[in-house]
TrEMBL record, chain A:
It is a multi-pass membrane protein. Keywords: Cell membrane, Membrane, Transmembrane, Transmembrane helix. It is found in: Cell membrane. InterPro entries: ABC_transp_permease (IPR001851), LivM-like (IPR043428). This is Branched-chain amino acid ABC transporter permease. The lineage of its organism: Bacteria, Pseudomonadati, Pseudomonadota, Alphaproteobacteria, Rhodobacterales. PANTHER family: ABC TRANSPORTER ATP-BINDING PROTEIN, HIGH-AFFINITY BRANCHED-CHAIN AMINO ACID TRANSPORT SYSTEM PERMEASE. CDD domains: TM_PBP1_LivM_like. It comes from Parasedimentitalea denitrificans. The chain crosses the membrane at residues 20-37, 70-88, 95-117, 137-157, 169-188, 218-242, 254-279, 291-315.
UniProtKB/TrEMBL annotation, chain B:
This is Branched-chain amino acid ABC transporter substrate-binding protein. Keywords: Amino-acid transport, Signal, Transport. CDD domains: PBP1_ABC_ligand_binding-like (cd06337). SUPFAM superfamilies: Periplasmic binding protein-like I. The lineage of its organism: Bacteria, Pseudomonadati, Pseudomonadota, Alphaproteobacteria, Rhodobacterales. Pfam families: Peripla_BP_6. InterPro entries: BCAA_transport, Leu-bd, Peripla_BP_I. The keyword Kinase does not apply. PANTHER family: LEUCINE-SPECIFIC-BINDING PROTEIN (PTHR30483), PERIPLASMIC BINDING PROTEIN OF ABC TRANSPORTER FOR NATURAL AMINO ACIDS (PTHR30483:SF6). Residues 32-374 form the Leucine-binding protein domain.
Length: 336, 422
């Protein structure tokens, strides 16, 4: 027998285990980090991990599904404000509130998709930015959320011992970085992942091949909003204070795009590499004032000239190696 | 003669132990005090830090040979960080200074950072001194209560009520029709100055002045015609409010085009720095503002003995730039920090340093800073008077003190000239 059902079984990826092994190893080693490293480094890692998650979410949108958002800060801010609101106003544990922040961002992302999906290409990009600005203005003018002055979490965190607070925040950030990487990795290897890339490459042929284009885009957008919302909540759990001008700043999108482009767009390794490069540069250069910003610009320009596919794109192209392979290849042993 | 095996092993062990002890001692001595300093060297608030490299260089040379405290010698390490004018970055930097660098004292010369960085100090039990932010904006967003205060964070600056008193002083010293038109930016500053409870509208009510409120404008707005035409219809003679330089420039240019001719313009934020006036061309002449430090202040530095005029003079000589108001506060925060470490007896004893601050009374180049005797816990209020920018002097514009009702010890240098009489 050789029917459509068995034929679908030949869509297999080449090295199915390397990504899972890498994530499992990273999880074991990094989860134990609080034993070995100081609180300052832990906080830095929280920033690194949340950036990886933010970059993975944006890469899923731009690199795999083909829509460029410059309004990711909308969901960072909503995640953060959602978390602060339930922690401060309803007295929920601030750590569990992170999940609430993510869910609120996903719900708002779902509603936003209804309007945003009417726009295409650059119009979609500008639309996402407008959305973020709408929320910024809303939060600045809403006294319930502290208005332009913002909200502080110090009051509810004061009773929690320092180590508990730092370690829990760290584990949350680690879980989000690894979880989002794993989820996106598994997702892209599935049938759904194939549909996602078909939509990116050509919506019309995807539609004619039976892919539910709108539904696919919707699922991806909501998932990216959820991850971004969780990341926003953890970021501001780390700083303990949220203000609308900082949380809804377009700087976030610029930073995320920098990380993904430098690391390698359209690869799962790219956001991780990009985040590591960004934080390494920041830690070494941030004491040099304006030169710090100029150096970032030069790095971005250099990367675009030397390695337009980003660092990982360059490495993968040169050595034909993928730690997280998602491209399907027909295996040689066709089913009989 | 040869040493036995046992002796040589013993010798080896002894020398190893001595080496270890020696290294240990070398690591522990000289004892180093670490002071963290956060200021906005880059980003939207960079102007507030323009004088910082100069102040930091002064402190480096003063502390080069360390400090002598209660008969002990300490080296002093200054760790300066750039907040990039971001509240998020400032909080993370404060945590980094506390956790990684293990600082003994945190100094925060940054309006935005004073919230997040002070919260980090508070949660981690490190004494912190901050300035550059009206005390309300420092206390209330952090959930503070003036009757209770905080444990580890201490702030010195003025409050909204002091700035507004200086404005009232300016407005009542000149002859107008007592009608004020106001523009407020949609940000924390504009929100505070526009507050009906404690902002400019409330103060005008007390004075019996009329208030034409044009509401809050979004920063970067291109057209102020509705506000300007409203002010013209209502016969406004005084313009007030809170705006940053770019928006004020737009407003003031359009006011000229549309022939709005007020007698007095007093704007918070936009008129702090000479650059903000220079951006107006010659139309900066006669604009009025709050003044919290100038070379004309009658105070001197406890560190260098310099008068305010001498400090500003040295700054201008060394850098070739005009002095700005934050110079006094950047200097004063170090005066207080160093003095507090000295008074504590043991500068590493964080609780002792905190107690010195809590009961502290410090004479600085911005005047007396007193946390012992204050109705607002953890806040020491400093002086604000009224001033007017005039063309002329050593630079394009000079700032002259015109009104001093709240601080008679600060000498008046000129009286307010109405814009129409220039």
């Amino acid at each position: 027998m050789y029917d459509a059902l068995t034929q679908s079984a030949v869509w297999r990826v080449k090295t199915p285990k390397s990504g899972l092994v890498a994530i499992a190893l990273a999880a074991i080693v990094l989860a134990l980090a609080p034993v070995a490293i100081g609180p300052g480094s832990l906080r830095l890692l929280v920033e690194v991990f949340t950036m990886i998650a933010l970059a993975q979410a944006w890469n899923l949108l731009a690199g795999y599904t083909g829509f460029v958002s410059v309004g990711q800060q909308a969901f960072i801010g909503i995640g953060a404000y959602g978390m602060f609101a339930v922690a401060l106003k309803m007295g929920l544990n601030p750590f569990s509130s992170v999940l609430v922040g993510g869910i609120v961002a996903a719900v708002i992302g779902a509603f936003a998709a209804l309007a945003l999906f009417r726009l295409r290409g650059p119009y979609f990009a500008i639309g996402t930015w407008v959305l973020a600005e709408l929320f910024r203005i809303f939060f600045i003018n809403t006294q319930y959320f502290g208005g332009a002055s913002g909200l502080t979490l110090a009051r509810v965190l004061r009773g929690i011992p320092r180590d508990v607070r730092l370690n829990t925040t760290y584990w949350l950030a680690l879980a989000l970085a690894l979880g989002s990487t794993l989820l996106i990795y598994l997702l892209l290897r599935s049938r759904f992942g194939l549909a996602v890339r078909t939509v990116r490459d050509n919506e019309a042929s995807a539609e004619s091949a039976g892919v539910n284009v709108w539904g696919t885009k919707f699922m991806v957008f909501v998932l990216a909003s959820f991850i971004t919302g969780c990341a926003g909540a953890i970021l501001y759990l780390n700083t303990m204070f949220v203000g609308a001008n900082a949380a809804f700043s377009v700087k976030w999108s610029a930073l995320i795009i920098f990380v993904v482009i430098i690391g390698g767009i359209g690869t799962i390794e790219g956001p991780i590499v990009g985040a590591l490069v960004y934080f390494t540069l920041r830690e070494y250069l941030s004491d040099f004032g304006t030169w710090y910003i100029i150096t970032f610009g030069l790095v971005a320009i250099a990367a675009m000239i030397v390695a337009p596919q980003g660092i990982w794109g360059y490495v993968a192209g040169r050595f034909k190696y993928h730690l997280f392979p998602v491209e399907a290849e027909i295996s040689k042993d066709l089913p009989r | 003669m040869s040493l036995s095996k046992g002796t040589s092993r013993l010798a080896l062990l002894t020398s190893a132990a001595a080496l270890t002890l020696g290294l240990g001692a070398a690591g522990a001595w000289p004892d180093t005090i670490k002071i963290g300093y956060i200021s906005p060297l880059t980003g939207s608030h960079a102007e507030f830090s323009e004088t910082d490299p100069f102040v930091l260089a002064t402190m480096q040379s003063l502390l080069e040979n360390g400090l002598e405290i209660s008969g002990e010698h300490y080296d002093v390490e200054i760790i300066s960080k750039d907040s990039q004018s971001s509240t998020d970055r400032a909080g993370n930097l404060a945590a980094q200074l506390i956790y990684d660098d293990d600082i003994d004292l945190l100094l925060i010369q940054d309006s935005l950072s004073s919230i997040t960085a002070a919260d980090q100090a508070e949660l981690n039990g490190v004494p912190a001194i901050s300035t550059m932010m009206p005390w309300q904006a420092w206390m209330f967003p952090r959930g503070g209560d003036p009757a209770v205060g905080f444990e580890w964070s201490y702030h010195f600056f003025w409050g909204l009520e002091d700035v507004i008193a200086a404005y009232q002083d300016i407005w009542t010293s000149v002859d107008t029709n007592k009608t004020v038109g106001a523009i407020y930016s949609a940000d924390p500053g504009g929100e505070a100055f526009g507050s009906a409870d404690f902002g400019i509208p409330a103060a005008l009510g007390q004075l019996g002045f009329g208030h034409v409120n044009s509401g809050h404008f979004q920063e970067g707005i291109a057209d102020f015609s509705p506000q300007i035409s409203k002010f013209k219809t209502e016969g406004v003679e005084i313009i007030a409010g809170h705006s940053h330089v770019p928006d004020f420039s737009t407003f003031w240019t359009q006011a000229a085009q549309q022939e709005l001719e007020p007698k007095v313009v007093t704007m918070a934020a936009a008129l702090l720095f000479p650059s903000g006036l220079e951006a107006q061309g010659d139309r900066g002449d006669g604009l009025t503002t709050e003044v919290w430090w100038t070379p004309g202040f009658p105070y001197s530095s406890s560190l260098t003995g310099q008068s305010a005029a001498e400090l500003a003079g040295q700054y201008e000589t060394d850098t070739g730039r005009q002095w700005t108001q934050p110079l006094g506060y950047s200097h004063a925060i170090w005066e207080i920090g160093i003095e507090a470490l000295k008074r504590a007896g043991d500068p590493h004893d964080k609780e002792a340093v905190r107690d010195v601050l809590a009961s502290g009374n410090f004479d600085t180049i911005v005047g007396n800073v007193n946390w012992a005797d204050t109705p607002i816990k953890n806040v020491a209020k400093t002086k604000v008077v009224g001033g007017q920018w005039r063309l002329g002097g050593d630079h394009q514009y000079q700032l002259l003190i015109t009104n001093n009702a709240s601080a008679p010890e600060i000498p008046v240098e000129a009286s307010v000239v109405l814009l129409g009489d220039l």
